[in-house]
Design brief:
Layout (H helix, E strand, L loop, with lengths): L1 H39 L16 E4 L4 E4 L4 E4 L4 E4 L16 E5 L5 H12 L4 E2 L4 H4 L16 E3 L4 H5 L3 E6 L2 H14 L15 H22 L6 E5 H6 L1 H11 L6 H9 L19 H22 L3 H12 L7 H6 L1
Parallel strand pairs: 5-7, 5-8, 6-7, 8-9
Antiparallel strand pairs: 1-2, 2-3, 3-4
Helix pairs in contact: 6-10, 10-11
Length: 340
């Protein structure tokens, strides 16, 4: 009797172990199958474009986002509301493609706002060499497109390699302290948020100072480098664009060789703010101390002189200034000393 009971227990243990092993194997193979299915499933493109102009609706499960290119409305989970993305024109891709035009700028200089104005004015998508999902979800559906099918291409790159693929270029320049602060806020607070106030003061202030010391050099080098662009170059000053939107936008559209009707221009000016622009935040305390201001002003003076030289057709002097700055020796041509 005891022998039968022991035998029954051993049999029960063996069956339980076998059942457990089968369940583990089933779970393993199901998990592998799911992972393979996800990896092999092609990802849908970020933008749809049909020349017929019929309604294009796509449900993007990755972002739980409904894009409706025909109506210009979309639900944006980031803002929890419906946004009228295209109040003036429904953007489309250019066909046939045109010249590849760069929108070169230091991050935080207002390139997203310019892209919004250009899309609304011309009716063509603006592209980017990057793939920003937040921008792709909020009206810039041609993210990752960097060919002639878009009216201009956002880039923060510089150097011969970064400039080589472009036929024309727009150089957007913003006052450095504002641009640096905007980029710092984007890195630590998102496109529309702000970096925490504590990062500018006390124990965390070192990160802010290190950021300024490194990025002010990038701001200067990027601007000086794009002034050496071989093709047609149009310089846009952010502060001038804010102050005189219509005049500067018309010059930009003329450079892009696009015709815009008076009705469309009026619509753009009525909706010029867009939806992807960070509101100014009042700083209760000074975040730029004396040494930081001196460092920023020094680099800003060099860039201002280079822009002055370029606009007066003194390209050789711009190259000399760039070379002298690289060697930490400031070059001042006689023409600049007399007229600046």
């Amino acid at each position: 009797m005891v022998f039968k009971i022991c035998r029954f227990r051993r049999l029960l243990i063996k069956r339980s172990f076998f059942t457990f092993l089968v369940l583990v194997l089933v779970y393993f193979f199901v998990s592998v199958g799911v992972l393979l299915t996800r990896s092999l499933t092609p990802k849908p493109p970020l933008a749809y474009q049909l020349s017929t102009g019929r309604q294009i609706t796509k449900l993007r499960k990755n972002y739980k986002l409904l894009l409706n290119v025909q109506s210009g409305f979309q639900y944006n989970p980031l803002f929890r509301s419906f946004q009228n993305l295209h109040p003036c024109k429904i953007p489309k891709l250019r066909y046939p493609p045109g010249p590849i035009t760069a929108l070169a700028s230091f991050p935080g200089s207002g390139n997203t706002w310019i892209r919004y104005l250009v899309q609304q004015s011309t009716g063509y998508f603006t592209g980017s060499i990057y793939g920003d999902s937040a921008l792709a979800m909020t009206g810039f559906h041609a993210e990752r497109i960097s060919n002639g099918s878009v009216i201009l291409v956002k880039t923060h790159e510089w150097g011969e390699t970064g400039r080589r693929k472009f036929h024309k270029a727009i150089l957007l320049v913003r006052e450095p302290s504002r641009a640096l602060l905007a980029e710092f806020n984007r890195r630590f607070g998102g496109h529309l948020g702000y970096a925490p106030q504590r990062m500018f003061f006390k124990s965390q202030k070192k990160e802010w100072q290190t950021f300024l010391e490194k990025q002010i050099k990038v701001w200067k080098e990027l601007t000086l480098d794009w002034l050496k662009f071989n093709g047609p170059l149009h310089i846009v000053r952010y502060e001038e664009l804010v102050e005189h939107v219509k005049d500067n936008l018309l010059k930009l559209i003329e450079f892009l060789n696009v015709t815009v009707s008076n009705a469309t221009l009026s619509c753009v000016l009525e909706n010029k703010e867009g939806f992807f622009k960070r509101k100014e935040r009042m700083q209760k305390l000074e975040i730029f101390d004396t040494s930081l201001k001196r460092m920023i002003d020094k680099n800003e003076d060099i860039v201002e002189k280079a822009i002055w030289l370029y606009r007066h057709g003194l390209q050789e002097d711009v190259d000399k200034l760039d070379a002298e700055v690289t060697n930490n020796v400031i070059f001042l041509p006689s023409s600049l000393i007399l007229n600046y």
